[in-house]
Each structure stands twice: as structure tokens, then as C-alpha cells.
Amino acid sequence: MRIFDPHIHMTSRTTDDYERMAAAGVRALVEPAFWLGQPRTSVGSFTDYFDSLVGWEPFRAGQFGIRHHATIALNPKEANDPRCREVLGVLPRYLEKDGVVAVGEIGYDSMTPEEDDAFAAQLALAIEHELPALVHTPHRDKARGSARTLDVVRESGIDPGRVAVDHLNEVTVGAVAGSGCWMGFSIYPDTKMTAERMVHILREYGLERMLVNSAADWGRSDPLLTRRTGEAMLAAGFSDDDVDRVLWRNPVEFYGQSKRLDLGPVDADATFEGNSILRGGS
Ligand SMILES: [Zn+2]
After folding, report:
1. Which end of the chain is less enclosed by CB atoms within 10 A, N or C?
2. Mean pLDDT of the 26-52 span
3. H runs (alpha helix) in 161-238
């Protein structure tokens, strides 16, 4: 089983997790920019983090043969802090980098006017930089949050086929299915969505535009739940090809729209120096 995890926050995970993921079949992943737990107080904290998403983390992943890509954005939670909003001005520089395959994660946390502004501004950046957009939906008041999210996406003029709306569940999937956007599901140990519930959703809505991720982050989470979902699909009668479509070909198709996915073999002898990965032997 080959696995592409389209949404996982490796910054918050240990190197042992990379090792376990590689053993479970994870060959590629996308790490969206998000918050750091501790609130940021300046733009410098964002730029160091973004640099690590395009430098250090790809190196750490590469040691286990995993291809690492990133999405870059001001996350919805920190869009409410004026000290953080200034980062919007430095995003264009990062959105041009190799390995950055979307603008994200953007969207709503508490649905404030500040979040409205940051969301709309960053959808405009996605259009301008010809990148897909990864959209987070709020964990509270999910139905209203998703409906408003789809309104903002529609108003932005971005092609819905270049937008993934994430953290969906049984309540919110229907509206997103009808919108033409991609549907993302975060499989968690005890909240959001389980592998078994995911299988029911795939039965009902089909495999097209479906993305399954572990979203593993600072909370209780498990980077191997993508694999568990593949196993649950097989146990429920889906074929190996169906599993490959959901866990590999779909995320490749979605992020491939950036024209920046690199899924070739990783240079296992590379070293990390200064701010960048050096090829083995060089
Ligand atoms: Zn996330």
C-alpha cells in the first residue's frame, strides 16, 4: 500500500514517527503551515517556521525516503492577532518556492471579520500564484462554518477544483460534494472522524475528489491512521486499486495542480547545512 498523507503537521512529531510512517507505506506527504502551540509574537517566528517547512522537514523526511512538500499561509487562528497579520506581506516570497504546493491552511477558526479578510486575501494569492488552496473548516459550529467557507470560495472566483475543504464529517460532506471542491477528512483516534466512518462516507459519496489525512498535530493523533483507513476499506470490500486511488492518486492529482510535486527517489546521502539540503557527496 503506497500512501500520500495530504495533511500532516510533522513539526509536532518525532523522527520516530517518520520511521513508523515509512514502514507503513507513507512515501509522500504535505505539511500545511499552522500554529505553533505557543502564540507567535512577530513575523520572524513565521519566517523561521516557513524556512523549516521547505528546508529542515524535507531533510528529516528524506532520511526515511519520504517526499515532503508544504503549504504556506497565515493560519485562521492567528489571523486574529495583529502582530501575526503582517506575515501576509511576506507570503508571496514563499509561494514561489519549490516544494510549496498550495496556499494553506486558510479558512475559519472562530469566524471573525479578521478571519474573513485573511481568508479572502489568501484565496486571491492562490489565484495569483496559480496554486491550489487548502481550507481548514472550524471545529465548532461546523455546518455554518462550512456553508460560509463555500460562500467565500465561490466569491473569490477560484476554480473549485483547485480547492480542498478539510476536516469534513457526515454533516458537512454533502454541501462540499456539490460545490466541486475536493473533500478532505482528518482521521483521528477519538474525535473528528474514524477509519470506519470514513469507509461509510466513501461508500455513499464515491472516491472522486476524496482526500484522507491523519492531520497529526499537537493533540492526540496518529500518523498511521491513513494506513488504518486503507485497511478498513479493504476489509469492507474495496479493491487495492480503490485504496490506491484514495491514498495515493487523489492527493497526487490535487497537489499536482501546483506543477511542483516531486515524487522521484530521495537522495539518502543528502546532508543539511546552513538552510538547505545538500546532495549526497557534494
Ligand atoms: Zn492542520
Report:
1. C
2. 96
3. 173-179, 195-205, 225-235
Contacts of 85 (CB under 8 A, 6+ apart): 74, 79, 114, 118
Q: How far is the CA of 229 from the centre of ligand 1 (A)?
A: 18
Tell me the per-residue pLDDT of 126-184, one tens digit each, with 9 for 90 and over: 999 999 999 999 988 889 999 999 999 999 999 999 999 999 999 999 999 999 999 99
**What is the pTM (predicted TM-score) of this model?**
0.95
Question: How many angstroms separate the alpha carbon of residue 72 from the centre of ligand 1?
Answer: 12
Distance in Å, CA 27 to ligand 1 centroid: 19
User: What phi, psi does 105 have (nearest 5°)?
Assistant: -85, 135
Strand order in the sheet with 100-107: 3-5, 26-32, 67-72, 100-107, 133-136, 163-166, 182-186, 210-213
Q: What are phi and psi of 183, to 5 degrees?
A: -110, 120
